[in-house]
Write a structure and sequence with these properties.
Layout: E1 7-10, E2 14-19, H1 23-30, E3 43-49, E4 55-65, E5 68-73, H2 78-87, E6 95-99, E7 103-107, E8 113-114, E9 122-126, H3 134-144, H4 165-168, H5 179-188, E10 193-200, E11 211-214, E12 217-226, E13 229-235, E14 243-246, E15 249-253
Antiparallel strand pairs: 1-7, 2-5, 2-6, 3-4, 4-5, 7-9, 8-9, 10-13, 10-15, 11-12, 12-13, 14-15
Length: about 250
């Protein structure tokens, strides 16, 4: 495998294998993006959703063979994904089991599973060593505006608010849990808030859930931060050039 190791970072992951004659059809009916059309070696982001379109787990679906898929998710969600898929399987002929791997994010071009999480060409490569620090990868994620489960993604948030629809939802595939509210909001509604990148005064790093204020009124909340940068949900009516306040410091939409 031809991998260009420019800089690499360990990416905590859980892995679930879905394999068997009905694997492609079953996953197509369960997740938010088209996966049956993937060729072996290709991958696609998707969401596992509740019927009300709340995110159970963000996924990267990798097709390894005609009847063999590997799902990548957050480390705390492996058993959640496995159990959810087993519960809905009924007569579908496929095995759903955890697998053990390590995942390393490699910045730069090369073979691997493409990821758009870090604002630059990058790949996830399984079962190789990493040389970078995890906090460097977190800054890249925040600078790219990429949501993370447990921070930007939880049961309070709709996929459209987190910017996940463009990345992980198909509007041309068949039915899946959560499809109706996703489509209704996309075609007929609008979100009241959206995920934004914030530039912070004096390398401030506010706490998660810290209120974002405009003219003394709460207009959002912080979800993740590193010194000088943060992600947070901000009401859509807030102007792009507004100067916000968080924990007594200035913050600008970036």
């Amino acid at each position: 495998m031809d991998i260009v190791l420019t800089r690499s970072y360990r990416r905590p992951r859980a892995f679930v294998r879905v394999a068997g004659p009905d694997a492609a059809d079953y996953l197509e009916r369960m997740v938010s993006n088209e996966v049956a059309t993937l060729a072996p070696g290709e991958s696609r982001e998707a969401l596992l959703l509740t019927p009300k379109a709340r995110v159970i787990a963000p996924l990267v679906v990798v097709r390894r063979g005609e009847e063999d898929f590997l799902l990548l998710t957050e480390p705390e969600l492996g058993e959640v994904v496995r159990a959810q898929l087993v519960r809905g399987r009924f007569a579908a002929k496929c095995e759903i089991e955890p697998e053990e791997h390590t995942s390393t994010v490699v910045l730069g071009e090369g073979d691997g599973i493409p990821t758009a999480d870090y604002g630059a060409p990058a790949r996830e490569v399984l079962d190789v060593d990493a040389d970078g620090e995890a906090d460097e990868l977190e800054r890249l994620r925040i600078d790219a505006g990429t949501p993370r489960f447990g921070a930007e993604i939880d049961d309070r948030v709709l996929p459209a608010e987190a910017g996940l629809v463009e990345r992980a939802v198909s509007f041309t595939k068949g039915c899946y849990p959560g499809q109706e509210p996703i489509a209704r909001l996309h075609y007929r509604g609008k979100t009241n808030r959206r995920l934004r990148i914030l530039a912070l005064e004096d390398d401030h790093a506010p706490a998660s859930e810290a209120e974002l204020e405009l003219d003394g009124k709460a207009v959002g909340r912080v979800t993740s931060s590193v010194p000088g940068r943060a992600l947070g949900y901000v009401r859509t009516e807030v102007p792009d050039d507004a100067e916000l306040v968080v924990e007594g410091r200035r913050a600008r939409l970036h």
